[in-house]
């Protein structure tokens, strides 16, 4: 997110003035007892560090503000720790000199699990989507923003190639889930076909589609690692097995498909060419998904 959204959130989300003022690391709204959010800046004197875990969780070691631990902002974090109130965690990715200006990643809601006096660090653990439900109340409906969060968090969890019916996400209407998967995958690829580099986007009209590597017919997961943005004809060719992708993300045209009668079909000119990938590595197609496609679709193609 750009800094402008974080500091002027109310312009996009009426009712919430700001997520963080970005003046100092800990943001406690005036008159409140709890910190609303914390931000780890690119340049700071603290020992902040984040680590991702295979179960979709993350840990963040965060320093209190220098000075007295009884100051208002430090006390607001200790209040969160004592009362198990979550905080929103932000990590700065770039400053104003970057190509996209000052931007922050919203890691999500975190629970403070403890404070180590010797190293002067809070231990914060990212909340799983199930915990967010428990915090907000079991009776709530899974809203759009939580579906987006649940799908994106799948990219950080231990890989499971197929839908898990025991997870709340997969109890959401399949059509609704598909809409969110499409939005996330197209966002990761900037609405651009990963294979041809083609892009057409005009308001809500987007030519590219969100292709599942392991098909939905085979209960393939909605994990973004199981998705690739492809133009319509490329998506069709991928589902039919005319081509697949190597572990190095290179296009592999099936030898039998090369015998087809073609005209103005540029896909076949891309054999052994590497596809375009998202900037974030944890959104790259999973190797096991690609292997499944090579074995089950491309490997069984018969021209």
Description of the structure:
The chain has 303 residues and is of the alpha+beta class. It has 2 domains: 3-127, PUA domain-like, CATH 2.30.280; 142-300, no CATH class. The protein contains 7 helices and 13 strands. Strands 1-2-5-6-7-4-3 form a 7-stranded mixed sheet. The chain has a two-stranded antiparallel sheet with strand order 8-9. Helix 4 packs across helix 5 (174-188). The termini are far apart. This is HNH nuclease domain-containing protein. Pfam families: HNH_2. Residues 193-245 form the HNH nuclease domain.
Give start-end ranges of low-pLDDT stretches: none
Helices, by number, come to: 7
Secondary structural class: alpha+beta
Largest sheet: 7 strands, mixed
Strand content: 15-25%
Counting copies of identical and different chains, the oligomeric state is single chain
